[in-house]
C-alpha cells in the first residue's frame, strides 16, 4: 500500500524543518558509535568500579569475553500499581541474558509519580516536570557508559516520555521498552464516573466514593481507561520499540514473563533465526516513526498530553513537530477505536478486540502509517500487527508465536478503516484571538462540539469548585481557568474539574472549559480547550479575558475566540498573575526545587521542555 499523500506531505515538511537539527544529532550518534566498547575504552579503575558488585562469572563475561552488557533503567516502586510488577523484572532479565551469553545490570532507577494520587494537590504541580527529571535520571544511569544495549522499564504518564527522551540522548544504544500491562477490570469506568458526579452533587458521601474508587483501582497494573499511560503503550507499539503486542497483557498473565524474556532476546538481536543487528534507537526514531506514533494517537483518540510529550520526544531525536502537523494528520486518519473515555470499553476490552496490533495493521494497510521504517524486530513494523500467543513455558527458547490481530473481535470497540467511528482523528487544533489550543473532540458528544457562552474567569481550579458548590454556575458558561501553564505553576492536570462540569452539562447547560493547564488523559465528555498557548503567565490572551466576555469554542471550524470588536480586544490591558499566587506556587512540598524548570519552560506546543 502506498503511503497516503497527506501522511507523506506532513512527514516531508517535518523532515525539511528538522534537517539541520537532525543532521547534527545523527552526527553525534555516529561519533559516539565508533568508540571502543566501555570495558576496553575505560581505565582499569573505572572498569573495576563498574563490575565490582556483580557475580564473578558476569565480570569475566563483561571484561574478558567482551559479552554484550545490557543496562536496565527501571521505574519500579510499589507506590504505583503500574510499576509494582517491575520488582522481579531485573532478575528475569539477568537470567535470560546469561542464558544467551550476555550480562545485564540495573544501571539506575528513575522516579515515578502517579497523577491519580496527586490530582488536585500541590504534588500535581511537579508532575509535568517529573518527565524531564526522569529523562535526566535515565541519562545519569546510562552515563556509566558500560552498556551495549538498554532496556527501559516504565509505563505511566510522564515515565515513558521521560525514559524515551533520556534514551534518545543515548541514541547510539539499541533500546527496547518493557511494559508491565494493565490491571484486571474492576468497577467500570462509566460507573466510576457516575459515582464521581453524584459525589460532586453531594448525593454520595466520602465512604461511598472511596468504595467505588477502590473497586476501580484494585490491583497491580495500569489503570484500565485509555488515558496517558495506556496511550504511551500504544505509541511505543506504533514506533516499533516493544516486543510486538506486549502493551496490554496483564501482569498476572503467564505470557508476561515470556514477553519480558523476549525483550532481552530482542535487544540482543536474537529474536529471529537469522542474525539481526538491532538499530540504535536514535537512528530508529526518525521523522517517519514519529509520524507513525502521531497517527496511532489520532486513530485511537489517545491522550491530549501527548501533544506536549511527543513534541519533546521528537525534539530529543533532533526532530521538530508542532500542533499543525497533528491537525493535518487528524483530517485523514480516522478514529478506529472507542475506549473509555471515548467509549465504554476499557483497555482489556480493547486488547480482546484486537488491541494495538489491529489498529497498526489497519493503518499500515491504508497507507496511514509508514511501512518502510526500522523497528527493534527483524520483520519491521509489520510484525506489530500481530498479537502474541504463548506456545510453551516462559523459559523455553522460543515460547511465543504471533497471529494476526485482524479482524476486529468487537466492532463496538475497534473498527477497520473502511468503517471507522469517525472519518477524522480524535484530536483537534483550535486557533483564534485566545491563542492556540487543542481539544479531544472524540470524547465530546456531537451536539457539544460548538459552545458559545459568557465567560466566568477563575485563577485556580479550587475557585471553580467553590463557585460550583455555591450554585454560581447553574447556567450556560465557559469557565476560563488561567495561571495553569508551565511557567505559572508547572501545568498540573485539572482532572478534578471534570465531575462538576459534567454535572452542569448533565443538567442541560452548555458549558466548556478553556485553560492553559492540562486535563487528564481520562477526561472527556465536556468540551475543553486546553494547553492554551501562550499561557496567561507569559502574557498570553487568557490574561485579557473578563467575566461576561462572550467566548466561542468551535470544534468543527477549529476556532477559539472571544467575541469582541478587534480594536477593543487589542486595547484591553493584560492582567498580571497575582503575586501571592505565584509565590504560593513556588513554596512547599518540593515545589521550591522546580523554580528553574518553571522559569525555563518552553510553551506547551514546544513540549514544555525545561532542558533546552
From TrEMBL:
<keyword id="KW-0004">4Fe-4S</keyword>
<protein>
    <recommendedName>
        <fullName>Phosphogluconate dehydratase</fullName>
        <ecNumber>4.2.1.12</ecNumber>
    </recommendedName>
</protein>
<dbReference type="Pfam" id="PF24877">
    <property type="entry name" value="ILV_EDD_C"/>
</dbReference>
<comment type="pathway">
    <text>Carbohydrate metabolism; Entner-Doudoroff pathway.</text>
</comment>
<dbReference type="GO" id="GO:0004456">
    <property type="term" value="F:phosphogluconate dehydratase activity"/>
</dbReference>
<keyword id="KW-0119">Carbohydrate metabolism</keyword>
<dbReference type="InterPro" id="IPR020558">
    <property type="entry name" value="DiOHA_6PGluconate_deHydtase_CS"/>
</dbReference>
<feature type="binding site">
    <location>
        <position position="223"/>
    </location>
    <ligand>
        <name>[4Fe-4S] cluster</name>
    </ligand>
</feature>
<comment type="similarity">
    <text>Belongs to the IlvD/Edd family.</text>
</comment>
<dbReference type="InterPro" id="IPR056740">
    <property type="entry name" value="ILV_EDD_C"/>
</dbReference>
<dbReference type="InterPro" id="IPR000581">
    <property type="entry name" value="ILV_EDD_N"/>
</dbReference>
<dbReference type="InterPro" id="IPR037237">
    <property type="entry name" value="IlvD/EDD_N"/>
</dbReference>
<keyword id="KW-0408">Iron</keyword>
<comment type="function">
    <text>Catalyzes the dehydration of 6-phospho-D-gluconate to 2-dehydro-3-deoxy-6-phospho-D-gluconate.</text>
</comment>
<dbReference type="InterPro" id="IPR004786">
    <property type="entry name" value="6-phosphgluc_deHydtase"/>
</dbReference>
<feature type="binding site">
    <location>
        <position position="156"/>
    </location>
    <ligand>
        <name>[4Fe-4S] cluster</name>
    </ligand>
</feature>
<feature type="domain" description="Dihydroxy-acid/6-phosphogluconate dehydratase C-terminal">
    <location>
        <begin position="413"/>
        <end position="608"/>
    </location>
</feature>
<keyword id="KW-0479">Metal-binding</keyword>
<dbReference type="InterPro" id="IPR042096">
    <property type="entry name" value="Dihydro-acid_dehy_C"/>
</dbReference>
<keyword id="KW-0411">Iron-sulfur</keyword>
<feature type="domain" description="Dihydroxy-acid/6-phosphogluconate dehydratase N-terminal">
    <location>
        <begin position="68"/>
        <end position="382"/>
    </location>
</feature>
<dbReference type="Pfam" id="PF00920">
    <property type="entry name" value="ILVD_EDD_N"/>
</dbReference>
<keyword id="KW-0311">Gluconate utilization</keyword>
<keyword id="KW-0456">Lyase</keyword>
Amino acid at each position: 500500500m502506498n503511503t497516503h499523500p497527506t501522511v507523506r506531505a506532513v512527514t516531508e515538511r517535518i523532515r525539511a524543518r528538522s534537517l539541520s537539527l537532525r543532521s547534527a544529532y545523527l552526527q553525534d550518534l555516529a561519533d559516539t558509535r565508533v568508540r571502543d566498547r566501555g570495558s576496553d575504552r575505560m581505565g582499569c579503575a573505572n572498569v573495576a568500579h563498574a563490575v565490582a558488585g556483580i557475580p564473578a562469572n558476569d565480570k569475566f563475561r563483561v571484561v574478558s569475553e567482551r559479552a554484550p552488557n545490557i543496562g536496565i533503567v527501571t521505574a519500579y516502586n510499589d507506590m504505583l500499581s503500574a510499576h509494582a510488577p517491575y520488582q522481579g523484572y531485573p532478575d528475569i532479565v539477568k537470567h535470560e541474558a546469561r542464558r544467551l551469553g550476555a550480562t545485564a545490570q540495573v544501571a539506575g532507577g528513575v522516579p515515578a509519580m502517579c497523577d491519580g494520587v496527586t490530582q488536585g494537590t500541590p504534588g500535581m504541580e511537579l508532575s509535568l516536570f517529573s518527565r524531564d527529571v526522569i529523562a535526566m535520571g535515565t541519562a545519569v544511569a546510562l552515563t556509566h557508559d558500560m552498556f551495549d544495549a538498554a532496556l527501559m522499564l516504565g509505563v505511566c504518564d510522564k515515565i515513558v516520555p521521560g525514559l524515551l527522551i533520556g534514551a534518545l540522548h543515548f541514541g547510539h544504544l539499541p533500546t527496547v521498552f518493557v511494559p508491565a500491562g494493565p490491571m484486571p477490570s474492576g468497577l467500570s469506568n462509566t460507573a466510576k464516573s457516575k459515582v464521581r458526579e453524584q459525589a460532586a452533587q453531594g448525593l454520595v458521601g466520602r465512604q461511598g466514593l472511596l468504595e467505588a474508587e477502590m473497586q476501580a483501582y484494585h490491583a497491580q497494573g495500569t489503570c484500565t481507561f485509555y488515558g496517558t499511560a495506556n496511550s504511551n503503550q500504544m505509541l511505543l507499539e506504533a514506533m516499533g520499540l516493544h516486543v510486538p503486542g506486549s502493551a496490554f497483557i496483564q501482569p498476572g498473565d503467564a505470557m508476561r514473563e515470556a514477553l519480558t524474556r523476549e525483550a532481552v532476546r530482542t535487544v540482543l538481536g536474537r529474536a529471529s533465526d537469522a542474525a539481526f543487528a538491532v538499530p540504535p534507537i536514535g537512528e530508529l526514531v526518525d521523522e517517519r516513526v514519529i509520524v507513525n506514533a502521531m497517527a496511532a494517537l489520532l486513530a485511537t483518540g489517545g491522550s491530549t498530553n501527548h501533544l506536549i510529550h511527543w513534541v519533546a520526544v521528537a525534539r530529543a531525536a533532533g526532530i521538530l513537530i508542532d500542533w499543525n502537523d497533528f491537525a493535518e494528520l487528524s483530517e485523514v486518519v480516522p478514529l478506529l477505536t472507542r475506549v473509555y473515555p471515548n467509549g465504554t470499553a476499557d483497555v482489556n476490552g480493547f486488547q480482546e478486540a484486537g488491541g494495538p496490533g489491529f489498529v497498526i495493521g489497519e493503518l499500515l494497510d491504508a497507507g496511514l502509517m509508514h511501512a518502510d521504517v526500522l523497528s527493534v524486530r527483524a520483520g519491521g513494523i509489520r510484525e506489530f500487527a500481530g498479537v502474541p500467543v504463548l506456545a510453551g513455558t516462559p523459559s523455553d527458547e522460543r515460547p511465543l508465536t504471533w497471529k494476526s490481530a485482524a479482524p476486529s473481535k468487537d466492532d463496538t470497540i475497534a473498527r477497520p478503516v473502511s468503517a471507522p467511528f469517525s472519518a477524522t482523528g480524535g484530536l483537534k487544533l483550535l486557533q483564534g484571538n485566545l491563542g492556540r489550543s487543542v481539544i479531544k473532540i472524540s470524547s465530546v458528544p456531537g451536539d457539544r462540539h460548538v459552545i458559545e457562552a459568557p465567560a466566568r474567569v477563575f485563577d485556580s481550579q479550587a475557585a471553580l469548585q467553590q463557585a460550583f458548590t455555591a450554585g454560581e454556575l447553574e447556567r450556560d458558561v465557559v469557565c476560563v481557568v488561567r495561571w495553569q501553564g508551565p511557567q505559572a505553576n508547572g501545568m498540573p492536570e485539572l482532572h478534578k474539574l471534570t465531575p462538576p462540569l459534567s454535572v452542569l452539562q448533565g443538567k442541560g447547560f452548555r458549558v466548556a472549559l478553556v485553560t492553559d493547564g492540562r486535563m487528564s488523559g481520562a477526561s472527556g465528555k465536556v468540551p475543553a480547550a486546553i494547553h492554551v498557548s501562550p499561557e496567561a503567565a507569559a502574557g498570553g490572551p487568557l490574561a485579557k479575558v473578563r467575566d461576561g466576555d462572550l467566548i466561542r469554542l468551535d470544534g468543527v471550524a477549529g476556532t477559539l475566540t472571544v467575541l469582541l470588536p478587534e480594536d477593543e480586544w487589542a486595547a484591553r490591558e493584560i492582567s498580571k498573575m497575582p503575586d501571592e499566587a505565584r509565590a504560593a506556587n513556588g513554596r512547599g512540598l518540593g515545589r521550591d526545587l522546580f523554580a528553574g524548570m518553571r522559569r525555563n519552560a518552553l510553551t506547551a506546543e514546544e513540549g514544555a521542555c525545561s532542558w533546552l
